[in-house]
């Protein structure tokens, strides 16, 4: 049995159907009293109330039973399930980016060196980033790039364009003006890990009881780096004749916002390279997936009398739901039939799909929709 397809309502310790509880209660009363009850009897009112309260108690018991299992637990109970396998919930994380410091070489020649300490704040409005390491500027090397971490946790630090984070609160070195600006878009900031993401890691946790040798262990340790990681693919390079290369491991990481940043990839590399995390002989490569871009261009042939605006709006909504379910997965093929099925909402007679065509996507690739065009055909059909 595939437990991943098990429905929550099917997992129960006792029967909690109201009709079944009511029927059993009536039958028990009739057996004990020797009286056949009719719907209008006063005893039925009391029995109805009792059966309702009994059903609520049984439903609560069943829910308490479900909360003991990580597949169905929520909130604090899921945290307790994670504690059983030494897997705490990931707390809110801060965004990271790379900031480049620069100064005039002639000005640096007069003071020889300008030291930029770790923790130097650089801000964009009310959002501030602090450098994670120190840097030194000299006349021979008037620029230096260092990683910086947002001082506020959560998504607030994500998405700032290159160059927007450029305000130095104080000049770190006297005698020379130092400029700073981010050269990468900050990412990786996230709120506390959601139940669904946390549940996935708890179910993977037994893989971590080994070093990162099994595929599941590499996936577990990669996901544990940051809750923005939504999919991980682990494989190893192949020789020309298709044989796996021993000792070579390739980890492909996808995030909820798409391609991972270099800062996040560095975090995953560090997590997978710890002495106690991977076999000594493994050489690990961490990379972003290869994007397989495609454009959606569909024309909807409608039934006679259908409102084109409403049908197209419904088709766009259906497409957004279909694409959202695929956005956080690697290796999903681009199948025109699936797309046509998703777009065939009420009022659509036929879907003419001009793009994309059938395309097989490898496990380490990511199918990415870059543009959407959904229109209604001029002619309608009776059907």
Please characterize this protein's 3D structure.
With 383 residues, this protein is α+β, with helices and mostly antiparallel strands. It folds into four domains: 64 residues, no CATH class; 89 residues, no CATH class; 78 residues, GMP Synthetase, Chain A, domain 3 (2-Layer Sandwich), CATH 3.30.300; 87 residues, no CATH class. Helices cover 30% and strands 26% of the residues. The strands form four sheets. The chain has a six-stranded antiparallel β-sheet with strand order 7-3-4-6-1-8. Strands 9-10-11 form a three-stranded mixed β-sheet, with helices on one face. Helix 1 crosses helix 2 and helix 3 packs parallel to helix 5. The protein starts with 17 loop residues before the first helix and ends in a 7-residue tail after the last strand.
Largest sheet: 6 strands, antiparallel
- Cα shape: extended
The portion of residues forming beta strands comes to: 25-35%
Please give the radius of gyration in angstroms: 30 Å
Which features does this protein show?
single chain; six-stranded antiparallel beta sheet; 383 residues; 4 domains; alpha+beta; GMP Synthetase, Chain A, domain 3; three-stranded mixed beta sheet; 9 helices
Short synopsis of the structure:
Residues 294-374 form the Baseplate J-like C-terminal domain. With 383 residues, this protein is of the alpha+beta class.
């Amino acid at each position: 049995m595939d437990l991943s397809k098990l429905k929550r309502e099917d997992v129960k310790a006792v029967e909690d159907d109201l009709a079944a509880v009511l029927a059993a209660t009536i039958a028990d009363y009739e057996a004990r009293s020797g009286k056949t009850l009719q719907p209008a009897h006063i005893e039925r009112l009391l029995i109805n109330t009792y059966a309702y309260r009994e059903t609520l108690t049984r439903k609560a018991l069943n829910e308490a039973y479900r909360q003991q299992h990580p597949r169905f637990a929520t909130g604090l109970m899921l945290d307790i399930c994670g504690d059983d396998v030494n897997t705490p919930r990931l707390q809110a994380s801060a965004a990271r980016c790379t900031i480049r410091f620069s100064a005039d070489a002639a000005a640096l020649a007069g003071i020889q060196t300008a030291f930029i300490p770790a923790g130097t704040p650089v801000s964009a409005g009310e959002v501030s980033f602090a450098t994670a390491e120190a840097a030194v500027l000299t006349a021979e090397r008037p620029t230096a790039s260092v990683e910086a971490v947002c001082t506020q946790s959560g998504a607030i630090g994500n998405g700032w364009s290159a160059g927007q984070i450029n305000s130095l609160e104080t000049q770190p070195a006297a005698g020379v003006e130092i400029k700073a600006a981010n050269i990468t878009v900050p990412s990786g900031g996230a709120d506390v890990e959601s139940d669904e993401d946390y549940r996935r890691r708890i179910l993977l946790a037994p893989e971590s009881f080994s070093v990162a040798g099994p595929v599941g262990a590499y996936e577990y340790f990669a996901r544990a780096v940051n809750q923005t990681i939504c999919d991980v693919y682990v494989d190893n390079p192949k020789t020309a004749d298709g044989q796996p290369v021993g000792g070579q491991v390739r980890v492909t990481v996808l995030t909820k916002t798409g391609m991972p940043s270099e800062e996040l990839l560095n975090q995953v590399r560090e997590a997978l390279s710890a002495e106690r995390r991977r076999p000594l002989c493994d050489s690990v490569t961490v990379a972003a997936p290869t994007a397989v871009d495609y454009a959606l261009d569909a024309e909807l042939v409608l039934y006679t009398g259908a409102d084109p605006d409403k049908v197209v709006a419904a088709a766009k909504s259906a497409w957004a739901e279909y694409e959202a379910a695929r956005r956080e997965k690697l290796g999903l093929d681009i199948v025109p039939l699936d797309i046509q099925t998703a777009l065939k909402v009420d009022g659509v007679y036929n879907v003419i799909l001009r793009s994309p065509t059938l395309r097989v996507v490898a496990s380490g690739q990511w199918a990415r929709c870059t543009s959407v065009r959904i229109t209604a055909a001029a002619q309608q059909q009776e059907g």
